[in-house]
Amino acid sequence: MADDAEREALSEQLERLRSMLDLLTPWAMAAALGLRLPQAIADGAECADDLARAVGADAGGITRLLRYLALRGLVTEPEPRRFRLTRLGELLREDHPADAVRHLRPDSAQWRINLAWAGLPEAVRTGRAGYRIVHGRTFWADIEADPGFAESFSSLVSMWSDGWIPALAAAWPWHDARHVVDLGGGAGDVLISLLGTHPHLRGTLLDLPEAVGLARPALAAAGLSGRCAAVEGSFFDPLPEGGDVYLLAHCLHNWPDDACAAILRRCAEAVGDTARLLLAELFAPEDGGGGDAFGVSNDLTMFNVFGSGERTESRHRELLAGAGLEVRSITPFAGRHLIECAAPGGPPARSAAPPGR
């Protein structure tokens, strides 16, 4: 009996390992979306032969593919070789309001990031970003070279940011601020939220030309063109003047330590003795423990895509000190931390609430 129990336990463990190695589901979804099969089904072509004609593919291959996706709960097969989308599968329609499909297609930024996981073994061995190993150039070089990729990544970042950007607008006493310079501000999501929540603020967005090209129409659509400028540039170069708050929101974890040191030196130049720098970042655990599932997976993703990773609070303090900046306050928000910094002898930490409240 003991041997039978041991064999059963071993079989369960092996099955669990096999499930961890499953690459079939993402590739099956990529194949279906690349052929636009979910949309073809939604448009009325349910029979495998009709679907094959609609998308220009092999009917036998479509049948096998959709039967696998039925196992994953994305379609049903109510009659032999006739398929319909499930409620979950409806999310793969191109006209679905959730617009999830744009981040799942084989031409999306998310899929290109996914492909970079093939470089993880070499990344772990060498410390080099797996993205560059697989694609032949850095992630940021791809952003600069391909406007479509830049737009897809901007949309992906907006989706990731939905939860924490509104919290950022409430996490710090912005009532005392006057002009926020958002460094690496992307398509403007952060400034649109900040300026929309705090009508007294003005803003400047700094980013590469591809991002600025997306930010300007977004700012205009939000009615903020008169209060916010979008400026082309890099945070490795001298930064725009005139801000009393400089903001780096989820930027440093995209860069290894030497690049972060260079960015923070530019920030120190810009804030001088009168302005402040705010960093919005995740903190890795100080004790070397794994942390929560999101933090651990995000840390490995940053490593594989950018050759960087999430940092502890103490490591952030070390990098800031190396650039001549002191931490004034640290505020938790939405699973992240907002670090307020200034030059030695510069402005003190701001109060937590507007006067009189």
TrEMBL record:
It comes from the Bacteria. One of its GO terms (molecular function) is methyltransferase activity. The keyword Ribosomal protein does not apply. GO terms for biological process: methylation. Gene3D superfamilies: 1.10.287.1350, Vaccinia Virus protein VP39, Winged helix-like DNA-binding domain superfamily/Winged helix DNA-binding domain. PROSITE patterns: SAM_OMT_II. Residues 117-325 form the O-methyltransferase C-terminal domain. InterPro entries: COMT-like, COMT_C, COMT_dimerisation, SAM-dependent_MTases_sf, WH-like_DNA-bd_sf, WH_DNA-bd_sf. The keyword Transferase applies. Keywords: Methyltransferase, S-adenosyl-L-methionine, Transferase. Residues 23-92 form the O-methyltransferase dimerisation domain. This is Methyltransferase.
